[in-house]
Amino acid sequence: MHIDQFETIISKMLGIVEIVLLLTATYYLYKIYTFNRLNKKWLLFPMMTLFFAFRHFLILIKFNFIEELIVRYILFDQVFVPFMISLFILLGVYDMLKKFESFEIIEKQTHKKTVEMYNRKKMRQ
Amino acid sequence: MKEILLYIVPSTNYFQNVCNIIKEHICPGKFLIYVTTNKSTNHLKGIFEGMKINAQEIFFIDCISKSIGDLNKEDKNCICLEGPQEITGLSIAINKAVQAIPGEKVLFIDSLSALLIYNDDCTIAKFSNFIINKMRINNVKTVIIALDSDADTKTIKIVSSFADEVKKDAY
Question: ipTM for the complex?
């Protein structure tokens, strides 16, 4: 077998495995969202992996088999997809951070207010 | 001693029934932690005054005021959550309030029916199971209110099985 043919087969096989892995990750990320449903922005995570899987799918079906599409594909693959993935990660993680911060605020405020209320009641007695 | 009580309340004269249940459980020396999901704390305080219930003795966990814009940031007896859909925040607030107050206390959840509007059945069943077991471990008397129209729903039936007693009459 020629070395180029071998490389093509290996890259195709790995490409399929990558898509399966990314789709599984998408499913798990969606399941995590359904467990808490804290915020719809958390759906950006499964969207991100789905986007990644779509990108791999395009590579696999040789989106660039027509010469004229190569430029468009490079723009899509090297500019648009990484930009969208970065944006989704940033928005999702930022929202997650805000949510966890709000839990900490709830915890601290509840503790402070209940202790103050208890002390006020003791003073009245 | 029966610690976990589920009250199935008729929808007619709902709040009169709720006030009567509160009066049954509130007494000097006991702390009442009131989770409201359908009326703002400001509104409740007004009603309680009229019903001769001392609202100063009650700590409110308010799941509705923020979403309807009836927020009183100066209120010292109240913690406001984003909304009834924020079940994780509600669990944190209940746990913290129970841990921070020493002595006898009663947790009052008004109501499961309202929580079911904003969350799915499975989430509310899991939340109820978690809270009931937490309160049982901490020896906190827990009163849970549900509407009679929801009595036949899967969630209320599941919660009934967790409770020590289910009361179905008007009060």
Answer: 0.84
